[in-house]
Structures are given as structure tokens and as C-alpha cells.
Design brief:
single chain, 487 residues, alpha+beta, four-stranded mixed beta sheet, 18 helices, binds protoporphyrin IX containing FE
């Protein structure tokens, strides 16, 4: 069966086949791998878009990809899920091989539909509002940590500190228990997770699955960490169930993601149970920590380089919450901060590509692609193109506000820049992520003066693709605002 998944009126009939596409010439066995920047694979593919256009072929080892960089075609593909398109299977295979239960990110078909329903219950806007007190406690801990560094005049290692912030925020919500990496390095569960997530990424990127034939000591440590994490999650689930049994009112107003997912899983006909809840506890950590931390790091980097935008952000925060205390009403007033987040994600999307696979024959753009085609969705192409965003290379948050003018109206812009994906599998955590970002920025800008954010070598921050795309080696310097005012 052929179906057109192109979102805008492109050729309804294919004029090309995958074999007609050009692309970089590869080598036997490794394909184009050696031509790619190992630490920034996404950049290599983006460079090829400049050379070969929005559709081309390339190979990573034995895997043949078609790169698709046109935003409308990408949106069409993303909307055609779960029936016509799936996520590429590699991460799921490696996750399953480790014995980890699959969550919504890796599930497909009917299993995905059931899990998505359960997960969405946790992201219901009224529930997300109820998570505010938990997020506020974590933001206060970040404040205490940064206040210590600022009073000593120390540089702050930006990305690791922001990771502690998002780990405490999301792990707290997903486990339903306080996690305090901002205060101590002794969080045992986090020490296990720190072994699991980087190893997962390493295995996804490994050209050969060496661990199937030969287990190194690090592979054994990884297996041990997986067992320990699973045991810990079982305990968290049991504790949350006990709380729900003791206080039935929690069923209507769960205080965290775990309680919300458990209540949804217990609903008649949900089709999901404790295994799926456990899989999604891990999924929240995988999908929700690096992404938000790295977006915040990029945002601070871009603001530090754009003093006019920074001044406006400070003015907005000081007007909305001069004491740094936050509630929903005050957070709702931080429109410019939210625009800064959108502008950051346009220039520095932490998921710069999405791996997809066709589940049926399809016409993408003007190209006939057979069932099984692997697609490398280049998510940062049209979003940094002057055709869609005038002076696209510039950091101009105001383009996301109504005052940006009709050509840049936010809704049109959001169809081109899709940092949270699109369609039925669009990121369910996006409002929570924006909430965390606003809380962090409001705390920082109201209590400190941002003195500098720069890479250690003083050069432009390099992009590195690990689980997500992060800036390398950013250091931040802050000055307490009272002192700034006094001096
Ligand atoms: C700035 C922060 C974030 C960014 C940029 C981001 C980006 C993304 C992207 C690009 C996807 C794939 C969407 C698609 O396939 O169309 C995704 C999926 C997902 N994200 Fe996020 N995300 C962020 C924060 C979060 C947070 C805080 C959570 C949860 C705590 C979360 C949970 C998920 C889940 C569960 C999925 C899988 C959805 C599905 O397959 O149905 N994300 N995210």
C-alpha cells in the first residue's frame, strides 16, 4: 500500500526512488562512519544537507539511512505514527537486551497507545500544577548551591549543575521520593543510573555489539546497576501504592508522576500494570533529564552573549517575581523567558535528529520509499534557514511573541522548528520542561547577576552529541544580586 505522508502540497506522485538519491560515497563495512564527526554525528549530516539537499542517502555501518531535512515532510512522517512510521529500533533492542522494561518512548503500536494514555495522565495540566511545590524545593536547593559558589567567586560547571537540578526534579517526580544530588554525591540510585544511560548511548553508537561475545568489567557493572535500579523502582512503586491506599484523596490530586501513572494503570481496561509503570519511571529519567538540563545550559550561554535579550529577561523576572518566590500566576507572566526557551531550542535543539522507520511503502516529498526504510530526520535545518526565520542565525526571542509580526507569528514558527517533535508522539513532558526552565531562570535572574557563561577554552561552545546535544565545558560566573546592587 502506498500513502503520501507529505504534509504540504508536494508531488502526489513520486518522481524519484531512493536509489536515485545522491549522497556521500561510503566505504565497505563502515559506510560513511569514518567521514562523520564521532562526537557530533548530527553536524556531519547537517553539513551534507548543504551539499546534497534535503533528501540524500548515507550509511552508518550496515545501516542505510535516507536523510530528510524538509520540515513539512518531517511533520508528515511524525504525524503518520504509530501505524505508518515507528522509531528506529536500535535503542529499543539494546534497552530490552539489558532486561529493562520498555516505556512509552520505545513502545510501538497498541502497546504504545496504552502506555501513552497512562503517561499522559501524569502530564495532565492540573496535575503538573500540583508538582510545583516539589519543583520549588529543588529550585531552592539549586539556589543554595549557586549562592555558595557565587559568594566564593567560584566558576560554576554549568551543565553538571543543571543536570543535578533536572535529576532532582524529574527523579523526584518519577520515583515519588526526594532525590538530592544537588546536596550530595551519595544518591545511590543516581550512581547506578549514571552507569546505565551513558552505556546505553555507547552501545547504540557502537558499530559492533561486542558485549554479546565478550563482557568487559564495565559491562558487568552495568548489568549489576540494571538489577539494582529495578529493585529500587519496585520499592518506590510499593511505597507509592501504600500512600495511595492510606490517602484516597491522592488519587484525584497525585503529587508526582509515579502516583499519577499508578492511578491511571489501575483504571478499568488500562491494559498496563507495574511492568509498564516501572518502564515509564525509567523513561521519564531518560527523556526528561538531559534534555531540559542541556536546553537550560544553551539558553544561559545564548543569553550571556546577547545582552539586550538578557536585560529584557531580567526586567521581566524582576517585575513578575522580585523576591524570586514563584507561583503559577507569576510563572504565567514570564512570556519573554518562554520565548527565550523557544529561540534557544530553534538554534540548539537538544534532539537534533530523530531516527524513524517506515512501516509501509510511502511517498515522502517526491520520493518513493519502501517499507522498512530508515530515516534520519534532520530536525535543525529549516529552523535555521532565512527563508523561514529572517536573520535566522541571530538569537531574537521576540520573534516568538506576537510583537514579532505576522511573518514570524509563533504558531507558524512552531510548524517549522519542532524541538519537541510533532504528531501523536510529540513530547508529553514539554510543559513540565518549560515550567522547570522558567523556575530555574526566575530564581537565577532574580537572585544573581549573570557575570559570564563561556567555554573553558574561550571559544564558541562546541556541540557534542551524547544522549542529547550538549554544549562542551561551559563555566558560569554569578554575583549575588544584593551585592551587585550595592557595588
Ligand atoms: C527541553 C526539554 C525537552 C525536549 C527538547 C524534549 C524533546 C523530545 C523529543 C524531540 C521527543 C520525540 C518526539 C517525537 O518523536 O515526535 C520527545 C519525546 C518524549 N519526551 Fe521529551 N523533551 C524534553 C523534556 C521532557 C521531559 C521533562 C519529559 C518527562 C519528564 C519528557 C518525556 C518524553 C517522553 C516520555 C517522550 C516519548 C513520547 C512518545 O514516544 O510517545 N521530555 N521529547
Amino acid at each position: 500500500m502506498e500513502t503520501s505522508v507529505a504534509a504540504r502540497p508536494l508531488a502526489k506522485v513520486a518522481t524519484r526512488r531512493v536509489e536515485d538519491l545522491s549522497g556521500p560515497r561510503g566505504l565497505p563495512v563502515v559506510g560513511n562512519l569514518l567521514q562523520m564527526d564521532r562526537l557530533a554525528l548530527h553536524r556531519s549530516v547537517e553539513d551534507w544537507v548543504d551539499r546534497y539537499g534535503p533528501y540524500f542517502r548515507f550509511r552508518v555501518g550496515s545501516r542505510r539511512f535516507v536523510a530528510v531535512a524538509d520540515h513539512a515532510a518531517l511533520a508528515g512522517l511524525l504525524r503518520d505514527r504509530p501505524d505508518g512510521v515507528r522509531r528506529s529500533a536500535k535503542l529499543g533492542e539494546i534497552w530490552g537486551e539489558l532486561g529493562l522494561p520498555a516505556g512509552v518512548f520505545l513502545a510501538e503500536g497498541d502497546a504504545w497507545k496504552r502506555q501513552r494514555r497512562m503517561v499522559m495522565a501524569g502530564f495532565d495540566p492540573t496535575h503538573v500544577r500540583d508538582y510545583l511545590p516539589s519543583l520549588a524545593r529543588v529550585t531552592e536547593r539549586l539556589h543554595a548551591r549557586w549562592a555558595r559558589a557565587a559568594s566564593r567567586g567560584e566558576d560554576i560547571p554549568l551543565q553538571p549543575d543543571l543536570m543535578r537540578f533536572t535529576v532532582d526534579a524529574i527523579a523526584g517526580l518519577a520515583f515519588g521520593a526526594e532525590v538530592k544530588t544537588l546536596e550530595s554525591d551519595d544518591e545511590v540510585i543516581q550512581q547506578h543510573l549514571d552507569k546505565i544511560f551513558p552505556a546505553l548511548f555507547g552501545r547504540v553508537m557502537s558499530p559492533l555489539p561486542y558485549w554479546r561475545w565478550w563482557r568487559r568489567p564495565s559491562d558487568r557493572r552495568l548489568e549489576h546497576a540494571v538489577v539494582e535500579v529495578q529493585k529500587a523502582i519496585e520499592v518506590f512503586i510499593a511505597q507509592a501504592r501504600a500512600r495511595l491506599a492510606a490517602d484516597p484523596e491522592l488519587r484525584n490530586r497525585p503529587r508526582n508522576l509515579l502516583e499519577a501513572m499508578l492511578v491511571a494503570s489501575e483504571a478499568e481496561g488500562s491494559g498496563v500494570g507495574d511492568t509498564e509503570v516501572a518502564g515509564n519511571v525509567l523513561t521519564m529519567l531518560l527523556a526528561g533529564e538531559d534534555t531540559t538540563a542541556n536546553t537550560l545550559a544553551w539558553m544561559l550561554y545564548l543569553l550571556a552573549r546577547n545582552p539586550t535579550a538578557l536585560e529584557r529577561a531580567v526586567r521581566e523576572v524582576m517585575a513578575a517575581c522580585p523576591d524570586g518566590q514563584l507561583d503559577h500566576e507569576r510563572l504565567d507572566r514570564l512570556d519573554f523567558i518562554e520565548a527565550c526557551a523557544h529561540e534557544t531550542m530553534r538554534l540548539k535543539p537538544v534532539a537534533p535528529f530523530l531516527g524513524l522507520q517506515l512501516l509501509r511503502d510511502a511517498v515522502v516529498g517526491d520520493i518513493a520509499m519502501p517499507h522498512g526504510t530508515l530515516i534520519w530526520g534532520v530536525m535543525r535545518n529549516d529552523g535555521v534557514d532565512d527563508r523561514y526565520f529572517p536573520e535566522a542565525a541571530a538569537f531574537r526571542p521576540e520573534r516568538w511573541l506576537a510583537e514579532g509580526g505576522p511573518a514570524q507569528a509563533a504558531s507558524a514558527a512552531k510548524r517549522v522548528s519542532m524541538p519537541f517533535g510533532a504528531g501523536p508522539r510529540v513530547c508529553p513532558g514539554r510543559y513540565l520542561a518549560l515550567l522547570e526552565m522558567k523556575m530555574c531562570m526566575a530564581m537565577l535572574l532574580s537572585r544573581f547577576e549573570l557575570v559570564s557563561v563561556a567555554a573553558i577554552d574561550g571559544q564558541d561552545a562546541r556541540e557534542q552529541l551524547q544522549l542529547t546535544m550538549n554544549p562542551v565545558g561551559l563555566r558560569m560566573r554569578l554575583r549575588p544580586r544584593e551585592r551587585a546592587a550595592a557595588s
